[in-house]
Design a protein that fits this description.
globular; Rossmann fold; 216 residues; 5-stranded parallel beta sheet
Length: 216
Amino acid sequence: MLSFKPNQTLAFDGDSITCHRSKPCLDQWPWLRMSNNNRSWGDVLAELLFCWRPELNLKFRTPAVGGSTCRDVAGRFQEMIEPIKPDWAFMTLATNDASTKIPVTEFKNLMKDYAEKISTWNGQLVFLSNFKICPNANEFTKESIPTQAPYFEAHLELASELNNVYTIDVGSGLLEKSLVLYDQYVGHDIYSDGTHLSSVGSTIVAGEVLKAFGGI
């Protein structure tokens, strides 16, 4: 079982599933704040750990940028990861890699390099993986999810090859709970726009991560 230790730093890296802000100025669309759709699973996780595990004195950073691929994540490593040296780097990454047809071998090599770099300070890399098509998914998501499977497989391969890489299957839990919620009421939407997570979806994903760390 994974576990946090006192005074560790958690970094939430990857794409817009983790953070909606966009390049070049890391701006956020005002609508995201007004609709409460700028609150990511990382924000929920940080809030729960801050409130329920204050004795851990954890620090939280969000280097993720919307639209990112493995190339973007690798390109900003020195600027955004190296200075904070996170003990845990949580990663959502596959959607944009699949849509831009980045070779899976390149994806895997860049993520292996990322993991090896953070291992120099005993950092751990955790992929949030295996996302599935849930109720209220839009056409983009329905078409995209199947194409992400090879990248999710790369997550698993890296976890089996490197001692500091892990995967958390958040997708299965998200699908299971979204089906129950949708059956109760079709407005129980885990998406904010058919692709990105709503506050409901973010809370479910944060819960799946906490489960992997033994709960709170």
